[in-house]
Specification:
The chain is mainly alpha-helical. It contains 17 helices and no strands.
């Protein structure tokens, strides 16, 4: 289990800085805000297809082998971004690679790691394990956000912005290599005899997937790269200040995970997901109307302290309401519609930015997320995981 935590930390550290550097890199190459949104959409769409394939392949193939293959793809992604300058090439790299404009929550690695993690702990400790998994990833992502200021640090040495970011993409590839070595320590998983990836729990899984898609479509309007772009354009925020903001945002999100596990053990996983999510969406909507950068950043930080409490609880809930054999496919099927839905909205957000409607991505994100929370509460408040049934 510690190997999974270590690999997650490395991957999210890399995602923490590339999510911020990606729009800077693309605009430095001469691309427009709309082009940045399209590349973000291509990255999320490609991630969705990779995640779906990994979840269904895990029925027949060793999970460790699939994680090692994903690590090789991460290495290739970093090197390809460092070498590419042409828009068409960047689109292809974004589609087939692992670099994630939304941070570390949506990735080909996730359903595979969830399967290993949920099988390594007792049901009563499952949510706490996912909280620790999410905490480590968020802290690593926050540290990565601070490293996004590297181009500013290298400027006195005569290294330009584009050159410095290319170095960071190479560092991302190195993190993928180290993560691959961590996966070697995972025990081989016995291959399932069943050829069906989803069985008795398919109805629950597909309903959850549909609801999660609404949530992720909303979140796609303010993926980290686009939220950074909004801060740059609206308040002329510096790269160093943006890195500091995303660091503290990540720290607040990280420490909300064990709090979410504690709350979930008392009021239930679904209630925790809903009752922490709605206030965070209201903060995002308020930030769109903030009169100053201080108010905007303050509201966004409050949002960060609340918005991610559904991450460990959601992961734990999905793993709890399906059979063990269904876990890889369930994690994949619930993740893929999220990726597909979130792949659409960054391009729409980019178009809104280009048209001068800078507040609308934040408003759409907040409103749609509140709708998702209400639908989730109505549909699943009576479907409880085993530990809540026993309680």
């Amino acid at each position: 289990m510690n190997n999974i935590f270590f690999a997650r930390a490395l991957r999210d550290f890399g995602d923490g800085f590339v999510a911020i550097l990606l729009p800077v890199y693309l605009t430095a190459l001469g691309l427009s805000a709309f082009d940045v949104g399209v590349i973000a959409t291509a990255a999320l769409l490609g991630s969705a297809l990779l995640t779906l394939g990994a979840g269904f392949l895990a029925v027949r193939y060793d999970v460790r082998a699939l994680l090692l293959a994903a690590s090789v793809l991460m290495i290739a992604s970093g090197l390809a971004y460092a070498a590419a300058n042409d828009y068409a090439v960047l689109l292809v790299v974004a589609f087939v690679g692992t670099i994630n404009p939304s941070g570390g929550s949506t990735s080909v690695f996730v359903p595979l790691e969830h399967t290993v993690l949920s099988g390594a702990v007792a049901p009563a400790r499952r949510t706490w394990a996912f909280a620790r998994y999410s905490l480590i990833g968020a802290l690593a992502g926050a540290a990565g956000a601070l490293v996004a200021a590297t181009p500013d640090w290298l400027a006195p040495l005569g290294i330009g912005t584009v050159g410095a970011i290319k170095i960071m993409f190479g560092f991302y590839a190195l993190l993928g290599l180290i993560g691959g070595f961590a996966y070697f320590g995972i025990a081989r998983r016995k291959r399932e005899e069943s050829t069906s990836a989803l069985g008795p729990s398919s109805g629950i899984v597909y309903k959850l997937a549909a609801l999660f898609a609404i949530d992720s479509f909303a979140g796609g309007f303010v993926v980290h790269s686009l939220l950074a772009l909004w801060l740059f354009q609206r308040f002329d925020l510096s790269l160093a200040a943006a890195g500091a903001f995303f660091f503290w945002s990540g720290v607040l999100s990280a420490f909300s995970f064990p709090v979410a596990a504690w709350i979930g053990s008392r009021i239930g996983l679904i209630n925790t997901m809903v009752y922490t999510h709605i206030p965070s969406s209201l903060c995002l909507i308020a930030a769109a109307f903030a009169p100053s950068v201080e108010w905007a950043l303050g509201l966004l930080l409050v949002r960060s302290a609340l918005s991610q409490m559904d991450v460990p609880t959601r992961s734990s809930y999905v793993m709890a309401v399906v059979t063990e054999a269904e876990r890889p496919a369930a994690a994949s099927v619930t993740a893929v519609p999220r990726s597909l839905a979130s792949a659409i909205s960054p391009a729409l957000a980019g178009a809104l930015f280009s048209a001068g409607y800078q507040a609308w991505p934040l408003l759409l994100c907040g409103g749609l997320k509140i709708l998702y929370d209400l639908l989730l509460l109505v549909a699943f408040r009576t479907i409880k995981p085993p530990e809540e049934q026993r309680a």
